[in-house]
Amino acid sequence: MAAKIRNALAAAWLCSALAPGYVSSQVQARCDRACLEGLVSEHLTALAAHDPQRLPTTSGVKYVENAQHIPLGAGVWPIAGSLGKYRHVFSDPESGQVAAITTITENNIPAIYLVRLKAEPNGQISEIEAQLTRDDDGAILYEKMANPDPVWLAAVPEPQRISRARLVAQVDKYYSGMQGNDPRGDYSFFDRECDRLEDAVQTTNQHTGDTYGHSNDTSFASLSCEAQFQTGFLGFVTRIRDRRYVVVDEERQAVFAIASLDHNGTVRTLPSVNGTSSPIPAYFDVPRTLLGMEAFRLRGDKLYRIEMTLAELPYGMRSAFDSKNSNSAASQFPRPGNSTSLTTPSRPCNRTCLNGLPLRVLRAMLARNASSLPLARNIRYSENGQFLGLDDGLWLTLSNVSIPDVDEYAANFADDSSRTAGYWGLVKELTTPGVLSLRVQVDKDGKITEIEAINVRAEAPKGRGNTITLMRPPLPVEWEGGELGRLGGLFQGNGTALKGSKRNATALAKVAAAYFDGLERHSSKRVPFAAGCVRRDNGALQGNVSCAGQMDGRGQFPNGLSNSTTAVRDRRVLVADRDKGVVLAVVMVDFPATTKGGRLLSETEIVPSTYMVPQLIKIDHGGAISRVEAMIKWMPFGYTSAWGELGLEGKGC
Ligand SMILES: *[C@@H]1O[C@H](CO)[C@@H](O)[C@H](O)[C@H]1NC(C)=O
Ligand SMILES: *[C@@H]1O[C@H](CO)[C@@H](O)[C@H](O)[C@H]1NC(C)=O
Ligand SMILES: *[C@@H]1O[C@H](CO)[C@@H](O)[C@H](O)[C@H]1NC(C)=O
Ligand SMILES: *[C@@H]1O[C@H](CO)[C@@H](O)[C@H](O)[C@H]1NC(C)=O
Ligand SMILES: *[C@@H]1O[C@H](CO)[C@@H](O)[C@H](O)[C@H]1NC(C)=O
Ligand SMILES: *[C@@H]1O[C@H](CO)[C@@H](O)[C@H](O)[C@H]1NC(C)=O
Ligand SMILES: *[C@@H]1O[C@H](CO)[C@@H](O)[C@H](O)[C@H]1NC(C)=O
Ligand SMILES: *[C@@H]1O[C@H](CO)[C@@H](O)[C@H](O)[C@H]1NC(C)=O
Ligand SMILES: *[C@@H]1O[C@H](CO)[C@@H](O)[C@H](O)[C@H]1NC(C)=O
Ligand SMILES: *[C@@H]1O[C@H](CO)[C@@H](O)[C@H](O)[C@H]1NC(C)=O
Ligand SMILES: *[C@@H]1O[C@H](CO)[C@@H](O)[C@H](O)[C@H]1NC(C)=O
């Protein structure tokens, strides 16, 4: 069974991945340094011209932007503006790969732009992997620098070079040292004069008294690379996985690497750098994954210069390309609690049992113990669209749940025809409030085969201690953890009042489909809305506008769900509860930021985005929609759910 799932994942990944990572490539690449640098120039010129057709690509070229596979020409392509002066290029003729750190503008806002290209021996580009770090301050600083520190660019005399394998091994020590950052570790792999840039800011040997990262610490950045690691300060990075050493520039003794930095939220304090330890900044209070593209220059066999930038991804986001050294969240999946969990007795689950099931799962999460659940051997767990183990994510961080029929903002749903159960309610992850939607699927014997969680967390957009800075743009309506009121009798209770209805799960799903069609078309035509239907997004009613009015573009639109959104895709009905007349569903809504239509967002917010929108759709006995409750979660543009990717199995790409 496990093998079968792994095969399914492998099949899905095959569509997107051929290992580009550090492998001693046997390919006799024709493209030398000048040729590779030329490809970077061609790429950037094509980008600024919004014209990918200009590029010499293979027919199956893969395009990835902030870890999402999207069509070449989508994402940043339509909105890229002028190219910056700063251009730091790393070339690896042996593997035919080249990478660059540079700046561009997006809708006129500066951004740091990193890109890796893979050239085939015939000179055609087969992979383009870009990272946009939307930190305009950083991009402006890079432009002030204009050029990389010259130590990066000089050819190192051959006798002073170390081998490819050793370059990679030394860099790998950096990641291993940062992961869980043990203050007693051996950090002698740093050169004494090592310095690091983060978004063009020097964050070592720097005596400005500036705070470091999201913390209030003003001492950390004054330390050397080695002394920083010796504090254990970076231990909030709990895992660095999918490390790919994509460009090994032997001549310049530099490595350009790509890795996923996981922060599982369990580290609660920052150790003392200067007297007192402090609480973990709010940003790292919940599980986060950051994509890091990072360059290293070695002197001898020590790390001498480091240049890095990050972009925010959903926690556990699988790597866009396979890697030799994966240690990935998904590669360890499935990972049930342990063997005892597989022997917990089960019996067929009827509607009563289904109604109680979400709370059983949530209680197991609160207890950090999946063993009390009747898990099927092939149990799959996903969080915000990524597969995780049952000892990760919410299984480490859930701290409080609202109880249906007891607390104000909680309800559960069931569909015995498909043996699914659902939950929607206010929860806490450690100290951060969230609105959690949950789907639990059982098999004929009552064993749980699938658990799907989506948690829209409160974000704090302003001031220090904020949780969204350069990592993701703010939404026009953020939910900052405020009151959501009563979810309302419509969604709560046992549905007695609705007994006897002829609605069934299929009919309900049809109504939901009509709703999503309307959302995609920006037209309420053929969408059965009841008079008086209202929709809330992130807890906010946008003026006194009906559901139909909102869909048609009257009144204010919240959250980018305006007429500038395009596809409403990856539509998943999680549970269709016929007794309550409620569909719990999730969709991905693309906002390509091409700024057609009303501009509800400020300039810095106009970046390509995908909104993951879990929602409750209440459908009355006549089949009309009377209420919609939606939460909006920001995702990188083109985000797809892992469940959708599983569906690719056997279908080709
Ligand atoms: C270290 O802490 C002390 C007292 O809190 C403070 O006066 C000093 O400026 C700090 N040093 C640095 C480098 O932040
Ligand atoms: C940093 O300082 C601000 C202002 O004093 C405070 O509100 C915030 O909680 C502090 N953050 C951390 C992580 O200690
Ligand atoms: C399974 O978990 C239980 C409870 O945590 C523990 O007592 C038991 O040793 C674990 N078994 C295995 C094989 O890990
Ligand atoms: C479901 O099964 C339980 C125990 O087997 C039983 O007590 C309950 O009445 C059943 N509920 C329904 C709705 O059939
Ligand atoms: C986890 O749950 C199982 C089954 O309910 C129980 O036997 C075990 O003791 C629990 N483990 C811990 C660490 O509480
Ligand atoms: C979470 O982080 C803690 C602290 O680093 C670590 O011990 C634990 O193994 C991590 N768990 C997962 C699933 O990453
Ligand atoms: C959840 O929060 C409420 C009130 O804030 C508290 O009374 C309750 O004990 C909490 N439950 C858990 C499981 O922590
Ligand atoms: C369903 O809810 C109604 C009203 O809240 C209550 O009177 C009734 O007892 C409930 N029925 C069941 C089976 O829980
Ligand atoms: C569901 O209801 C629709 C119409 O309300 C009906 O046509 C269909 O046959 C029903 N399906 C099932 C499985 O009962
Ligand atoms: C909202 O609109 C309805 C009719 O369109 C009206 O009856 C109601 O008073 C309005 N409510 C508010 C708060 O403006
Ligand atoms: C989108 O809506 C705005 C007003 O909200 C309107 O001015 C614009 O014409 C609409 N665009 C399209 C393509 O419908």
TrEMBL record:
Residues 326-347 are annotated as: Disordered. Transmembrane segments: none annotated. Residues 160-308, 506-632 form the DUF8021 domain. Pfam families: DUF8021. Keywords: Signal. InterPro entries: DUF8021. Residues 1-25 form the signal peptide. This is DUF8021 domain-containing protein.
